[in-house]
Design brief:
single chain; 157 residues; mainly beta; nine-stranded parallel beta sheet; 1 helix; disordered C terminus
């Protein structure tokens, strides 16, 4: 009565202008509020909205980093919408950097959109012809290791 399937289809499942996503049949995204700092690894098979600070690696289905948010760690997700600051690498099928995004790290992607004004200090690595295994996040996070930026994953690195 108050919402329309047509509206959801027209906006590709996005609600409002906050960047939060809600997929049909799924619960709402887990939310890290603006006054919260988390120091540790975050793993969820669902969606995650960060408006605060996270120091650690993140694995989820869909990640939204709000304009006032700060993330210091690597991220692995199916879709990433970056509006805030991220220091670390992104591994995702689809990555969107808004005009307020700041990233210091490499982006491994299949599809990428970068708005004018976004700041990127790193490499763009296309996964279209290869490393699809890195994107196996559907349903549950991948077991592939990710390390904090500047921290080698093994002695051989």
């Amino acid at each position: 009565m108050f919402s329309s399937d047509k509206t959801d289809q027209q906006t590709n499942g996005r609600t409002g202008s906050s960047g939060r996503e809600r997929r049909k049949g799924n619960s709402p995204a887990s939310l890290i509020g603006p006054d919260l700092t988390i120091n540790g690894e975050l793993i969820t098979p669902g969606d995650l909205q960060i408006d605060g600070t996270v120091i650690g690696n993140i694995q989820c289905s869909n990640l939204t980093v709000g304009s006032s948010a700060t993330v210091n760690g690597d991220t692995k997700a199916r879709d990433v919408l970056l509006c805030g600051s991220l220091t670390g690498n992104i591994h995702a099928a689809t990555v969107t950097l808004t005009k307020t995004a700041k990233i210091d790290g490499d982006i491994h992607h299949e599809t990428i959109a970068i708005e004018a004004g976004a700041m990127l200090n790193g490499r763009l690595v296309s996964l279209k012809n290869g490393d699809r295994e890195a994107m196996t996040v559907a349903g549950s996070p991948s077991n592939a290791p990710i390390g904090l930026r500047g921290t080698p994953l093994s002695e051989a690195d």
